[in-house]
Amino acid sequence: MLKRLERKLGRYAIPGLTLFLVTGQGAAWIMSKAKPEVLEAMTLSPRMILEGEVWRLFSFIFVPPLGTPFFGIQVTGDIFTIFGLLILFSFGRALDAYWGNFRYNLFILLGWFIPLVVAFSLFTEDLGGVGLVSINLMVFQAFAYLNPEYEILLMLILPVKIKWLARLTWLFLGLGFLMAVFLSVVSLDPTPVLVSLAAVANFFVFFTSDILLRLRGVGRRAAKTKEVRAKASAVTHRCSACGITDRDDPQMSFRYCSQCAGRHAYCQDHLRDHEHVRE
């Protein structure tokens, strides 16, 4: 499907989309230093959009990552924002080069469109700047999924494989999702769950089929390993007289008695010294 879409719509893809997004986020962040209310006027708000502030349909994707919940504590700071912009710039360009302009554009487009649909479907104000804040995070997760062995310098000192940071991030996202499920059950309102899913939907649209294929491959490899181990531990010959097997003594030779009814193997010590089995 992606190949067909790319043949028909690929010419409309925006080249250098990452630089455009990073520039927009960076400009919004700098302006917020002088006027903090700028970011509030850019967030996704269905009510305000219907009242005439139509720029919010697009401006929310330029809200920079200002913080993240960490076990219930909101972690904020300029260093976090700079780190988020660097993630988008570095890994976004890498994904663009790997996928091509069209697929990368589609990945970003879904990160903008799905939160927009959820916000208007629920008519909720809770999405805020989830648009590109989640896109920054999903760009990171997409790059980590495709390049799990890639190393980054944590705090510019400690080399860490990106897959461990990605798994830690998924753990926090999973905890947040469980909290959203709890809130939805308590309040009988699906909004928290749908908002949590909207933030990661573009990742799963792109990678669910590949994840399922990998899981099937893991299952097949596990079954094959079990089969190989079973064959390796299987007993080929067992003496019908004393019970010794070729696993007990690999050097022992076994023969089958032609005078016994059925197939009865005997070790070299009992081949001539055993009572024949009759029907």
Structural notes for this entry:
The chain is elongated. It has helices at about 1-10, 15-35, 35-40, 45-50, 55-60, 80-100, 100-120, 130-145, 160-185, 190-235; strands spanning about 65-70, 75, 150-155, 160, 255, 265. Helix 6 (about 80-100) crosses helix 7. The chain has a two-stranded antiparallel ribbon. The protein folds into two domains: about 1-225, Rhomboid-like fold, CATH 1.20.1540; about 235-279, no CATH class. With about 280 residues, the protein is mainly alpha-helical. It has ten helices and six strands, in the order H-H-H-H-H-E-E-H-H-H-E-E-H-H-E-E.
Just name the CATH architecture of the largest domain. Up-down Bundle
| CATH topology annotation of the largest domain | Rhomboid-like fold
Q: Kindly state the mean pLDDT as a whole number?
A: 80
Radius of gyration: 31 Å
Helix content bin: 55-70%
**Class of secondary structure makeup:** mainly alpha
Task: Please list the strands of the largest sheet in the order they lie side by side.
Answer: 1-2
Number of strands: 6
Low-confidence stretches: 69-75, 128-132
Q: What order do the SSEs take from the amino end to the carboxyl end, as H and E?
A: HHHHHEEHHHEEHHEE
Cα end-to-end separation:
67 Å
Hey, roughly how much beta strand do the residues contain? 5-15%
Overall number of domains: 2
Major sheet, described briefly?
2 strands, antiparallel
The helix count comes to 10
Top CATH class of the largest domain: Mainly Alpha
Give the CATH H-level superfamily of the largest domain.
Rhomboid-like
Q: What is the global morphology?
A: elongated
